[in-house]
Amino acid sequence: MMRVVPLPLRMIFSLVVMGLIGFFFHLYNTVWLKPERIRKKLRIQGIKGPPPSFLYGNLSEIHKIQSQATEATNHAEIVAHDYTSTLFPYFELWRKEYGLIYTYSTGTRQHLYVNQPELVKEMNLCITLDLGKPSYLTKRLAPMLGNGILRSNGVTWAQQRKIVAPEFFMDKVKGMAGQMLESAEPLLKKWEDCIEAQGGVTADIQVDEDLKGVSADVISRACFGSSYFKGKEIFLKLRRLQKAISQQGFLFGTTRLRSSLRVMNQKEISSLEREIESLIWKAVKERKQPCLEISSSEKDLMQLILEAAINDECLDKDSSKRFIVDNCKTIYFAGHEATAVAASWCLMLLALHPEWQARIRREVAQVCPNGLADINSVLQLKTVTIVIHEVLRLYPPAAFVSREALEDTQVGNITVPKGVCLWTLIPTLHRDQNIWGPDANEFKPERFTNGVSKACKFPQAYIPFGLGPRLCLGRNFAMVQLKIVLCLVISKFALSLSPTYRHCPAYRMIVEPGSGVHLLIRRIDAGITGSIDGKETEK
Protein backbone atom coordinates (compact mmCIF):
# COMPACT_ATOMS: atom_id res chain seq x y z
CA MET A 1 0.00 0.00 0.00
CA MET A 2 1.42 3.40 -1.06
CA ARG A 3 2.30 5.70 1.80
CA VAL A 4 0.74 9.17 1.57
CA VAL A 5 3.12 12.06 2.24
CA PRO A 6 1.52 14.59 4.60
CA LEU A 7 0.54 17.89 2.98
CA PRO A 8 2.87 20.07 5.13
CA LEU A 9 5.88 17.98 4.08
CA ARG A 10 4.88 18.25 0.42
CA MET A 11 4.61 22.03 0.79
CA ILE A 12 8.01 22.25 2.47
CA PHE A 13 9.55 20.05 -0.22
CA SER A 14 7.98 22.20 -2.96
CA LEU A 15 9.25 25.39 -1.33
CA VAL A 16 12.76 23.94 -1.05
CA VAL A 17 12.72 22.90 -4.70
CA MET A 18 11.41 26.30 -5.79
CA GLY A 19 14.04 28.00 -3.61
CA LEU A 20 16.82 25.95 -5.18
CA ILE A 21 15.53 26.65 -8.67
CA GLY A 22 15.37 30.37 -7.85
CA PHE A 23 18.86 30.32 -6.37
CA PHE A 24 20.40 28.56 -9.37
CA PHE A 25 18.58 30.86 -11.79
CA HIS A 26 19.86 33.90 -9.86
CA LEU A 27 23.36 32.41 -9.91
CA TYR A 28 23.16 31.69 -13.63
CA ASN A 29 21.82 35.19 -14.31
CA THR A 30 24.58 36.79 -12.21
CA VAL A 31 27.56 34.79 -13.46
CA TRP A 32 26.55 34.38 -17.10
CA LEU A 33 23.38 36.02 -18.46
CA LYS A 34 24.05 39.53 -17.11
CA PRO A 35 27.75 39.61 -18.17
CA GLU A 36 26.78 38.10 -21.54
CA ARG A 37 24.21 40.87 -22.11
CA ILE A 38 26.97 43.43 -21.50
CA ARG A 39 29.36 41.58 -23.83
CA LYS A 40 26.64 41.52 -26.50
CA LYS A 41 26.21 45.31 -26.24
CA LEU A 42 29.95 45.67 -26.82
CA ARG A 43 30.05 43.10 -29.65
CA ILE A 44 27.30 45.00 -31.49
CA GLN A 45 29.71 47.97 -31.48
CA GLY A 46 32.45 45.82 -33.04
CA ILE A 47 34.38 45.19 -29.82
CA LYS A 48 35.73 41.66 -29.44
CA GLY A 49 37.95 39.89 -26.94
CA PRO A 50 39.07 36.51 -25.56
CA PRO A 51 36.14 34.13 -24.94
CA PRO A 52 35.34 33.86 -21.21
CA SER A 53 34.78 30.66 -19.25
CA PHE A 54 31.83 30.07 -16.93
CA LEU A 55 32.33 31.53 -13.40
CA TYR A 56 35.94 32.65 -13.93
CA GLY A 57 35.80 34.70 -17.13
CA ASN A 58 39.39 35.06 -18.36
CA LEU A 59 41.06 34.72 -14.95
CA SER A 60 42.49 31.25 -15.62
CA GLU A 61 43.93 32.47 -18.91
CA ILE A 62 45.41 35.54 -17.21
CA HIS A 63 47.14 33.40 -14.57
CA LYS A 64 48.44 30.96 -17.20
CA ILE A 65 49.86 33.71 -19.43
CA GLN A 66 51.42 35.45 -16.41
CA SER A 67 53.05 32.22 -15.19
CA GLN A 68 54.52 31.51 -18.62
CA ALA A 69 55.89 35.05 -18.88
CA THR A 70 57.41 34.87 -15.39
CA GLU A 71 59.16 31.58 -16.17
CA ALA A 72 60.55 33.01 -19.41
CA THR A 73 61.78 36.22 -17.79
CA ASN A 74 65.53 36.71 -18.03
CA HIS A 75 66.89 39.61 -16.02
CA ALA A 76 69.88 40.24 -18.25
CA GLU A 77 72.53 42.90 -17.81
CA ILE A 78 71.03 44.83 -20.73
CA VAL A 79 68.42 47.31 -19.49
CA ALA A 80 65.34 46.90 -21.69
CA HIS A 81 62.68 49.56 -21.16
CA ASP A 82 59.75 47.60 -22.62
CA TYR A 83 58.61 45.76 -19.49
CA THR A 84 54.89 45.43 -20.23
CA SER A 85 55.34 41.99 -21.82
CA THR A 86 56.68 40.80 -18.45
CA LEU A 87 54.42 42.64 -15.99
CA PHE A 88 51.19 42.58 -18.04
CA PRO A 89 51.72 39.88 -20.71
CA TYR A 90 48.01 39.10 -21.12
CA PHE A 91 47.24 42.69 -22.12
CA GLU A 92 50.05 42.64 -24.68
CA LEU A 93 48.99 39.26 -26.08
CA TRP A 94 45.35 40.29 -26.43
CA ARG A 95 46.32 43.68 -27.88
CA LYS A 96 48.21 41.95 -30.68
CA GLU A 97 45.22 39.68 -31.36
CA TYR A 98 42.25 42.05 -30.89
CA GLY A 99 43.73 45.52 -31.39
CA LEU A 100 43.73 48.69 -29.27
CA ILE A 101 40.16 48.17 -27.99
CA TYR A 102 38.93 44.84 -26.66
CA THR A 103 36.87 43.36 -23.84
CA TYR A 104 37.72 40.69 -21.27
CA SER A 105 36.21 39.30 -18.06
CA THR A 106 37.38 38.60 -14.52
CA GLY A 107 34.71 36.45 -12.93
CA THR A 108 31.41 38.28 -13.43
CA ARG A 109 33.12 41.61 -13.98
CA GLN A 110 33.44 42.98 -17.52
CA HIS A 111 36.36 45.16 -18.62
CA LEU A 112 37.13 47.30 -21.64
CA TYR A 113 40.78 47.78 -22.62
CA VAL A 114 41.17 51.17 -24.32
CA ASN A 115 44.55 52.19 -25.77
CA GLN A 116 43.37 54.04 -28.86
CA PRO A 117 44.69 57.61 -28.41
CA GLU A 118 41.47 59.39 -29.41
CA LEU A 119 39.37 57.34 -26.99
CA VAL A 120 41.96 57.69 -24.22
CA LYS A 121 41.65 61.46 -24.65
CA GLU A 122 37.83 61.28 -24.55
CA MET A 123 37.90 59.07 -21.45
CA ASN A 124 40.29 61.34 -19.56
CA LEU A 125 38.58 64.59 -20.52
CA CYS A 126 35.10 63.26 -19.69
CA ILE A 127 33.61 65.55 -17.02
CA THR A 128 30.55 63.49 -16.11
CA LEU A 129 30.49 62.08 -12.59
CA ASP A 130 29.04 58.87 -14.11
CA LEU A 131 32.59 57.81 -14.94
CA GLY A 132 34.43 57.15 -11.69
CA LYS A 133 37.07 54.93 -10.11
CA PRO A 134 36.31 51.16 -10.27
CA SER A 135 34.40 50.26 -7.12
CA TYR A 136 35.94 46.81 -6.69
CA LEU A 137 39.45 48.24 -7.06
CA THR A 138 38.87 51.08 -4.60
CA LYS A 139 37.50 48.54 -2.12
CA ARG A 140 40.76 46.60 -2.31
CA LEU A 141 42.75 49.81 -1.79
CA ALA A 142 40.57 51.05 1.08
CA PRO A 143 43.06 50.08 3.84
CA MET A 144 45.70 52.23 2.12
CA LEU A 145 43.64 55.16 0.81
CA GLY A 146 40.37 55.05 2.73
CA ASN A 147 37.77 57.15 0.93
CA GLY A 148 40.24 59.92 0.17
CA ILE A 149 40.57 61.84 -3.08
CA LEU A 150 42.28 59.02 -5.01
CA ARG A 151 39.51 56.55 -4.21
CA SER A 152 36.31 58.59 -3.98
CA ASN A 153 33.77 59.36 -6.70
CA GLY A 154 31.03 61.88 -7.43
CA VAL A 155 30.27 64.77 -5.10
CA THR A 156 32.62 63.43 -2.39
CA TRP A 157 35.55 63.50 -4.81
CA ALA A 158 34.66 66.99 -6.07
CA GLN A 159 34.50 68.33 -2.49
CA GLN A 160 37.86 66.81 -1.55
CA ARG A 161 39.54 68.09 -4.70
CA LYS A 162 38.32 71.60 -3.91
CA ILE A 163 40.10 71.43 -0.54
CA VAL A 164 43.36 69.81 -1.66
CA ALA A 165 43.97 71.35 -5.12
CA PRO A 166 44.93 74.91 -4.02
CA GLU A 167 47.77 73.55 -1.87
CA PHE A 168 49.51 72.30 -5.02
CA PHE A 169 49.15 75.37 -7.25
CA MET A 170 52.54 76.52 -8.54
CA ASP A 171 52.66 79.63 -6.33
CA LYS A 172 52.26 77.42 -3.25
CA VAL A 173 54.80 74.89 -4.53
CA LYS A 174 57.39 77.63 -5.09
CA GLY A 175 57.09 78.45 -1.41
CA MET A 176 58.00 74.84 -0.58
CA ALA A 177 61.30 74.92 -2.51
CA GLY A 178 63.34 75.88 0.56
CA GLN A 179 61.93 72.91 2.46
CA MET A 180 62.79 70.64 -0.48
CA LEU A 181 66.39 71.87 -0.41
CA GLU A 182 66.63 71.32 3.34
CA SER A 183 65.21 67.81 3.00
CA ALA A 184 67.89 66.89 0.43
CA GLU A 185 70.85 68.03 2.58
CA PRO A 186 71.08 64.83 4.67
CA LEU A 187 71.06 62.73 1.48
CA LEU A 188 74.08 64.52 0.02
CA LYS A 189 75.93 64.29 3.34
CA LYS A 190 75.13 60.59 3.69
CA TRP A 191 76.45 59.77 0.21
CA GLU A 192 79.62 61.77 0.84
CA ASP A 193 80.16 59.81 4.05
CA CYS A 194 79.60 56.53 2.16
CA ILE A 195 82.25 57.52 -0.38
CA GLU A 196 84.72 58.27 2.41
CA ALA A 197 83.90 54.98 4.14
CA GLN A 198 84.46 53.03 0.90
CA GLY A 199 87.87 54.47 0.08
CA GLY A 200 87.20 58.10 -0.76
CA VAL A 201 86.64 57.70 -4.52
CA THR A 202 83.48 55.75 -5.35
CA ALA A 203 80.71 54.18 -3.29
CA ASP A 204 78.23 51.45 -4.22
CA ILE A 205 74.89 52.74 -2.86
CA GLN A 206 71.27 51.61 -3.07
CA VAL A 207 69.71 54.98 -3.77
CA ASP A 208 65.97 54.25 -3.88
CA GLU A 209 65.47 53.95 -0.11
CA ASP A 210 67.40 57.20 0.47
CA LEU A 211 65.24 58.98 -2.11
CA LYS A 212 62.09 57.75 -0.38
CA GLY A 213 63.40 59.30 2.82
CA VAL A 214 63.92 62.66 1.09
CA SER A 215 60.47 62.60 -0.52
CA ALA A 216 58.78 61.60 2.73
CA ASP A 217 60.55 64.42 4.57
CA VAL A 218 59.44 66.92 1.92
CA ILE A 219 55.77 65.93 2.13
CA SER A 220 55.94 65.91 5.94
CA ARG A 221 57.43 69.41 6.15
CA ALA A 222 55.43 71.01 3.35
CA CYS A 223 51.98 69.56 3.99
CA PHE A 224 51.91 68.38 7.59
CA GLY A 225 54.25 70.73 9.44
CA SER A 226 56.59 67.99 10.70
CA SER A 227 59.76 66.16 9.66
CA TYR A 228 60.23 62.67 8.24
CA PHE A 229 61.84 61.66 11.53
CA LYS A 230 58.60 62.42 13.33
CA GLY A 231 56.40 60.69 10.75
CA LYS A 232 58.84 57.87 9.96
CA GLU A 233 56.72 55.20 11.61
CA ILE A 234 53.72 56.15 9.47
CA PHE A 235 55.72 55.94 6.24
CA LEU A 236 57.33 52.60 7.13
CA LYS A 237 53.95 51.07 7.96
CA LEU A 238 52.44 52.48 4.76
CA ARG A 239 55.16 50.72 2.75
CA ARG A 240 54.49 47.45 4.54
CA LEU A 241 50.78 47.91 3.87
CA GLN A 242 51.48 48.63 0.19
CA LYS A 243 53.41 45.36 -0.17
CA ALA A 244 50.76 43.37 1.70
CA ILE A 245 47.96 44.69 -0.53
CA SER A 246 50.03 43.99 -3.66
CA GLN A 247 50.33 40.34 -2.61
CA GLN A 248 46.54 40.06 -2.77
CA GLY A 249 46.43 40.54 -6.51
CA PHE A 250 44.26 43.64 -6.02
CA LEU A 251 44.22 44.43 -9.75
CA PHE A 252 41.65 41.73 -10.57
CA GLY A 253 40.34 41.03 -7.08
CA THR A 254 42.02 37.61 -6.95
CA THR A 255 45.07 36.17 -5.23
CA ARG A 256 47.33 33.17 -5.83
CA LEU A 257 48.22 32.92 -2.12
CA ARG A 258 47.35 29.69 -0.32
CA SER A 259 44.36 29.97 2.03
CA SER A 260 46.51 29.95 5.20
CA LEU A 261 48.78 32.67 3.81
CA ARG A 262 45.75 34.62 2.62
CA VAL A 263 44.34 34.70 6.15
CA MET A 264 47.70 35.85 7.54
CA ASN A 265 47.96 38.48 4.80
CA GLN A 266 44.50 39.86 5.60
CA LYS A 267 45.30 39.97 9.32
CA GLU A 268 48.49 41.91 8.57
CA ILE A 269 46.57 44.39 6.41
CA SER A 270 43.90 44.95 9.08
CA SER A 271 46.53 45.36 11.80
CA LEU A 272 48.60 47.83 9.77
CA GLU A 273 45.49 49.80 8.85
CA ARG A 274 44.57 50.24 12.53
CA GLU A 275 48.13 51.19 13.51
CA ILE A 276 48.45 53.76 10.71
CA GLU A 277 45.11 55.36 11.54
CA SER A 278 46.08 55.57 15.21
CA LEU A 279 49.40 57.26 14.37
CA ILE A 280 47.76 59.73 11.97
CA TRP A 281 45.00 60.58 14.44
CA LYS A 282 47.62 61.20 17.12
CA ALA A 283 49.38 63.66 14.77
CA VAL A 284 46.04 65.28 13.91
CA LYS A 285 45.12 65.88 17.56
CA GLU A 286 48.47 67.63 18.09
CA ARG A 287 47.61 70.05 15.26
CA LYS A 288 43.92 70.57 16.02
CA GLN A 289 44.21 73.47 18.45
CA PRO A 290 46.84 75.42 16.43
CA CYS A 291 44.52 75.07 13.42
CA LEU A 292 41.88 77.14 15.21
CA GLU A 293 44.35 79.86 16.16
CA ILE A 294 46.12 80.78 12.89
CA SER A 295 44.95 82.50 9.71
CA SER A 296 43.97 80.49 6.61
CA SER A 297 46.90 81.84 4.55
CA GLU A 298 49.40 80.30 7.00
CA LYS A 299 47.76 76.88 7.27
CA ASP A 300 49.33 73.76 5.77
CA LEU A 301 47.39 70.96 4.09
CA MET A 302 46.65 69.00 7.26
CA GLN A 303 45.23 72.11 8.91
CA LEU A 304 43.05 72.84 5.86
CA ILE A 305 41.69 69.28 5.94
CA LEU A 306 40.98 69.72 9.65
CA GLU A 307 39.23 73.03 9.03
CA ALA A 308 37.06 71.51 6.28
CA ALA A 309 36.00 68.66 8.56
CA ILE A 310 35.24 71.02 11.46
CA ASN A 311 33.13 73.33 9.27
CA ASP A 312 31.20 70.60 7.42
CA GLU A 313 27.81 70.37 9.13
CA CYS A 314 26.98 67.17 7.20
CA LEU A 315 29.72 65.22 8.97
CA ASP A 316 29.12 63.66 12.37
CA LYS A 317 32.03 62.93 14.73
CA ASP A 318 32.91 59.53 13.23
CA SER A 319 32.50 60.73 9.63
CA SER A 320 34.65 63.77 10.38
CA LYS A 321 37.43 61.60 11.78
CA ARG A 322 37.18 59.27 8.77
CA PHE A 323 37.39 62.22 6.36
CA ILE A 324 40.52 63.58 8.06
CA VAL A 325 42.38 60.27 8.40
CA ASP A 326 41.55 59.06 4.88
CA ASN A 327 42.80 62.21 3.19
CA CYS A 328 45.94 62.34 5.32
CA LYS A 329 46.69 58.71 4.38
CA THR A 330 46.19 59.53 0.72
CA ILE A 331 48.53 62.53 0.80
CA TYR A 332 51.15 60.68 2.85
CA PHE A 333 51.22 57.81 0.34
CA ALA A 334 50.59 59.52 -3.00
CA GLY A 335 52.61 62.59 -2.07
CA HIS A 336 55.90 60.81 -1.53
CA GLU A 337 55.91 57.28 -2.97
CA ALA A 338 55.39 58.09 -6.67
CA THR A 339 57.85 61.02 -6.60
CA ALA A 340 60.54 58.93 -4.90
CA VAL A 341 60.11 56.10 -7.41
CA ALA A 342 60.30 58.58 -10.31
CA ALA A 343 63.53 60.00 -8.85
CA SER A 344 64.96 56.47 -8.64
CA TRP A 345 64.20 55.80 -12.31
CA CYS A 346 65.70 59.20 -13.21
CA LEU A 347 69.01 58.39 -11.53
CA MET A 348 69.08 54.89 -13.04
CA LEU A 349 68.64 56.24 -16.57
CA LEU A 350 71.12 59.07 -16.02
CA ALA A 351 73.62 56.47 -14.78
CA LEU A 352 73.14 54.69 -18.12
CA HIS A 353 73.59 57.95 -20.05
CA PRO A 354 76.49 60.00 -18.61
CA GLU A 355 76.26 62.45 -21.52
CA TRP A 356 72.95 63.69 -20.09
CA GLN A 357 74.54 64.06 -16.65
CA ALA A 358 77.13 66.35 -18.25
CA ARG A 359 74.43 68.41 -19.98
CA ILE A 360 72.50 68.90 -16.74
CA ARG A 361 75.71 69.84 -14.92
CA ARG A 362 76.60 72.47 -17.52
CA GLU A 363 73.12 73.97 -17.53
CA VAL A 364 72.96 74.20 -13.73
CA ALA A 365 76.34 75.99 -13.73
CA GLN A 366 75.10 78.47 -16.37
CA VAL A 367 71.56 79.15 -15.16
CA CYS A 368 72.12 78.80 -11.40
CA PRO A 369 75.72 79.98 -10.80
CA ASN A 370 74.86 80.77 -7.18
CA GLY A 371 73.22 77.44 -6.45
CA LEU A 372 69.56 76.43 -6.39
CA ALA A 373 68.26 78.92 -3.85
CA ASP A 374 66.40 80.86 -6.60
CA ILE A 375 63.38 78.69 -7.45
CA ASN A 376 62.58 80.76 -10.57
CA SER A 377 66.00 79.83 -11.99
CA VAL A 378 65.36 76.17 -11.21
CA LEU A 379 62.09 76.31 -13.15
CA GLN A 380 64.00 77.61 -16.20
CA LEU A 381 66.26 74.53 -16.35
CA LYS A 382 65.30 72.99 -19.68
CA THR A 383 67.66 70.00 -19.83
CA VAL A 384 66.59 68.48 -16.53
CA THR A 385 62.95 69.10 -17.50
CA ILE A 386 63.16 67.12 -20.75
CA VAL A 387 65.06 64.34 -18.97
CA ILE A 388 62.26 64.05 -16.39
CA HIS A 389 59.62 64.05 -19.16
CA GLU A 390 61.42 61.20 -20.94
CA VAL A 391 61.86 59.18 -17.75
CA LEU A 392 58.15 59.55 -16.97
CA ARG A 393 57.36 58.44 -20.51
CA LEU A 394 59.36 55.21 -20.14
CA TYR A 395 58.62 54.60 -16.45
CA PRO A 396 55.34 56.28 -15.45
CA PRO A 397 54.73 55.40 -11.76
CA ALA A 398 51.05 54.71 -12.43
CA ALA A 399 50.65 51.83 -14.88
CA PHE A 400 46.96 52.41 -15.59
CA VAL A 401 44.20 54.89 -16.02
CA SER A 402 41.13 53.06 -14.69
CA ARG A 403 37.47 54.07 -14.69
CA GLU A 404 34.08 52.44 -14.13
CA ALA A 405 30.85 53.37 -15.88
CA LEU A 406 28.59 54.12 -12.91
CA GLU A 407 25.75 54.55 -15.44
CA ASP A 408 25.55 53.90 -19.20
CA THR A 409 28.14 56.37 -20.49
CA GLN A 410 29.21 57.64 -23.91
CA VAL A 411 32.99 57.68 -24.45
CA GLY A 412 33.79 58.87 -27.95
CA ASN A 413 31.84 56.65 -30.34
CA ILE A 414 31.41 53.85 -27.77
CA THR A 415 28.44 53.42 -25.46
CA VAL A 416 29.89 51.88 -22.30
CA PRO A 417 27.28 49.85 -20.37
CA LYS A 418 26.88 50.44 -16.64
CA GLY A 419 29.31 48.39 -14.55
CA VAL A 420 32.02 48.05 -17.20
CA CYS A 421 35.56 48.96 -16.04
CA LEU A 422 37.78 50.79 -18.54
CA TRP A 423 41.56 50.36 -18.55
CA THR A 424 44.35 52.21 -20.34
CA LEU A 425 47.83 50.70 -20.04
CA ILE A 426 50.01 53.83 -19.86
CA PRO A 427 53.44 52.23 -20.61
CA THR A 428 52.06 50.73 -23.84
CA LEU A 429 50.57 54.07 -24.87
CA HIS A 430 53.89 55.78 -24.10
CA ARG A 431 55.78 53.32 -26.35
CA ASP A 432 53.39 53.15 -29.28
CA GLN A 433 55.61 53.57 -32.34
CA ASN A 434 52.70 54.98 -34.34
CA ILE A 435 52.61 57.86 -31.85
CA TRP A 436 56.26 58.24 -30.82
CA GLY A 437 58.15 56.93 -33.84
CA PRO A 438 60.49 53.95 -34.35
CA ASP A 439 62.71 54.97 -31.40
CA ALA A 440 59.81 54.77 -28.91
CA ASN A 441 61.64 52.21 -26.72
CA GLU A 442 64.81 54.31 -26.51
CA PHE A 443 65.81 56.96 -23.96
CA LYS A 444 65.86 60.17 -25.99
CA PRO A 445 65.02 63.26 -23.93
CA GLU A 446 65.62 65.49 -26.95
CA ARG A 447 62.19 64.47 -28.27
CA PHE A 448 60.74 66.88 -25.65
CA THR A 449 62.97 69.84 -26.62
CA ASN A 450 60.02 71.79 -28.01
CA GLY A 451 57.58 70.65 -25.35
CA VAL A 452 55.13 67.78 -25.01
CA SER A 453 52.95 69.08 -27.85
CA LYS A 454 55.81 68.55 -30.35
CA ALA A 455 57.20 65.33 -28.85
CA CYS A 456 54.72 62.99 -30.52
CA LYS A 457 51.89 62.85 -33.05
CA PHE A 458 49.17 62.88 -30.38
CA PRO A 459 50.10 64.94 -27.27
CA GLN A 460 47.17 63.62 -25.23
CA ALA A 461 48.85 60.20 -25.39
CA TYR A 462 51.43 61.43 -22.87
CA ILE A 463 49.71 60.95 -19.51
CA PRO A 464 52.20 60.26 -16.67
CA PHE A 465 50.05 62.53 -14.47
CA GLY A 466 46.74 61.67 -16.10
CA LEU A 467 44.63 64.22 -17.97
CA GLY A 468 41.44 66.19 -17.52
CA PRO A 469 39.41 66.43 -14.27
CA ARG A 470 41.39 63.60 -12.63
CA LEU A 471 44.76 65.16 -13.47
CA CYS A 472 47.21 64.45 -10.64
CA LEU A 473 47.02 67.35 -8.18
CA GLY A 474 50.65 66.86 -7.17
CA ARG A 475 52.09 67.34 -10.67
CA ASN A 476 53.75 70.72 -9.93
CA PHE A 477 54.93 69.48 -6.53
CA ALA A 478 56.51 66.37 -8.06
CA MET A 479 58.19 68.20 -10.96
CA VAL A 480 59.77 70.88 -8.76
CA GLN A 481 60.98 68.30 -6.24
CA LEU A 482 62.45 66.11 -9.00
CA LYS A 483 64.25 69.09 -10.55
CA ILE A 484 65.78 70.14 -7.23
CA VAL A 485 66.89 66.64 -6.22
CA LEU A 486 68.33 65.77 -9.65
CA CYS A 487 70.20 69.06 -9.98
CA LEU A 488 71.71 68.73 -6.50
CA VAL A 489 72.77 65.13 -7.03
CA ILE A 490 74.14 65.53 -10.57
CA SER A 491 75.99 68.75 -9.67
CA LYS A 492 77.77 66.98 -6.84
CA PHE A 493 78.19 63.37 -8.04
CA ALA A 494 78.85 61.31 -11.17
CA LEU A 495 76.69 58.20 -11.47
CA SER A 496 77.08 54.81 -13.15
CA LEU A 497 75.25 51.50 -12.77
CA SER A 498 76.58 49.15 -10.11
CA PRO A 499 77.49 45.59 -11.20
CA THR A 500 74.93 44.47 -8.60
CA TYR A 501 72.05 46.34 -10.28
CA ARG A 502 69.33 43.98 -11.50
CA HIS A 503 66.78 45.49 -13.86
CA CYS A 504 63.40 44.05 -12.93
CA PRO A 505 60.53 46.56 -12.79
CA ALA A 506 57.79 45.35 -10.44
CA TYR A 507 54.15 46.37 -10.12
CA ARG A 508 53.27 47.04 -6.47
CA MET A 509 50.44 49.53 -6.90
CA ILE A 510 53.01 51.58 -8.84
CA VAL A 511 55.81 50.47 -11.19
CA GLU A 512 58.99 50.49 -9.12
CA PRO A 513 62.47 48.92 -9.25
CA GLY A 514 61.90 45.35 -8.09
CA SER A 515 65.38 44.88 -6.63
CA GLY A 516 66.23 48.48 -5.80
CA VAL A 517 68.54 50.86 -7.69
CA HIS A 518 72.21 50.18 -6.97
CA LEU A 519 74.56 52.84 -8.34
CA LEU A 520 78.26 53.60 -8.26
CA ILE A 521 78.51 57.18 -7.00
CA ARG A 522 81.67 59.25 -7.42
CA ARG A 523 82.26 62.73 -6.06
CA ILE A 524 83.00 65.23 -8.81
CA ASP A 525 86.55 66.58 -8.50
CA ALA A 526 85.67 70.17 -9.33
CA GLY A 527 82.58 72.14 -10.14
CA ILE A 528 79.63 73.96 -8.70
CA THR A 529 77.68 71.73 -6.39
CA GLY A 530 74.38 73.54 -6.62
CA SER A 531 74.74 74.16 -2.91
CA ILE A 532 71.87 74.69 -0.51
CA ASP A 533 73.07 78.02 0.83
CA GLY A 534 73.39 79.58 -2.62
CA LYS A 535 77.19 79.91 -2.48
CA GLU A 536 79.49 78.42 -5.10
CA THR A 537 81.55 75.59 -3.71
CA GLU A 538 84.59 74.16 -5.45
CA LYS A 539 85.81 70.63 -4.87
From TrEMBL:
Compartment(s): Membrane
Domain of life (superkingdom): Eukaryota
One Pfam short name: p450
Topology class, membrane: Single-pass membrane protein
SUPFAM superfamilies linked to this entry: Cytochrome P450 (SSF48264)
Known cofactor(s): heme
Bilayer-spanning residue ranges: 12-33
Coiled-coil regions, chain positions: none
The keyword Glycoprotein is annotated on this UniProt entry: no
GO molecular function: heme binding; iron ion binding; monooxygenase activity; oxidoreductase activity, acting on paired donors, with incorporation or reduction of molecular oxygen
One GO location term (cellular component): membrane
Signal peptide: none
Keywords, comma-separated and alphabetical: Heme, Iron, Membrane, Metal-binding, Monooxygenase, Oxidoreductase, Transmembrane, Transmembrane helix
Keyword Cell division attached: no
Residues reported to bind heme: 472
Entry similarity comment: Belongs to the cytochrome P450 family.
Protein name: Cytochrome P450 714A1
UniProt source species: Morella rubra (Chinese bayberry)
